[in-house]
Amino acid sequence: TPPSGGRSVLTVADLMAAQDASEMPVQNAAFMPLGTHAPARHRFEGTLRIPEFELRATLAATAQRAPNLLPGQALFPGVELQFFVHDGYLVPVRRGIIQPQTGTSWSQIIVSPGRVWSESGDNEFSRASFPFIVVDDYFNNSHNGVATFVFDDAKVSSLRLQITQEAASWAVYDLWGQTPIIYRPQVIAARADLADIFAEELARERPMRAWSELNAIAEANLVSPIIHQQGSSEGVSAAGLIVDEVIYAHPCHARYGDYPYCRYMRHGVYSVTKSMGAALTLLRLAEKYGPEVFDLKIVDYINVDA
Predict the structure, then answer these.
(1) pTM of the model
(2) What are the helix (H) ranges across the chain?
(3) Which of 59, 255, 289, 298 gives 164 a disulfide partner, CB atoms 3.0 to 4.6 angstroms apart?
(4) How far apart are CA 9 and CA 150, in angstroms?
């Protein structure tokens, strides 16, 4: 059951430890505000240095097949991440793929915006969490995770993270761990410009609402309820519809509770990319040159000898 009310997991004492003693991941809800909470008490802006470290790993209960993890697969990559806070969001400066410069980890990561807040039981600290995606260098499969730490104006706790979702039937693992990290407070260069860009991003986002609201709209308009079941399979991580420019989404599936940063979840789609890439390219050509491009034939423009 997801924790509720006051916090009993990932407490300040838990996060101050150098390592995590848990025998399994916790509920993903523990990485988000619990109980009474308020805006962060402290300013956070600077660089986090995360060392390469070994994650604890176990084959997920839902796995049907998976080989043993090879050396390097369970190593979280050593990286430096820069963040600033904008309107309660913990915003990473780098939003694309971040590759470790050293180490033997098989992975690179993508970091997305998280949150900062404070809880009544944390005394002098504030909290932060952020979603990330680990991308395997060899097989390109992506694994969605979430991380958290507490902080004040000068220091941070250890970083606790866990990975409990992937779109890779051959690598269904739960991974989790905790490591000391180094925080270097500093003014982020071009912070004002980056904040403006992030604010524009938020303004462009399609509204995302719960699936139940779509059914309520259907009933209010006396039309048949919309039938669209996410299904019970753990392999279906995200599902929904876009109706009148609004995203109506089911909760994003993950082991140990729904993934708390559903909008930022990413998925490896493998061979689907080939079909999507061609279709998107054709749509772009139509947008640029007009819909008549749909009637053109490639053979009229290139010599095909095969």
Answers:
(1) 0.86
(2) 12-16, 191-204, 211-220, 272-289
(3) 255
(4) 13
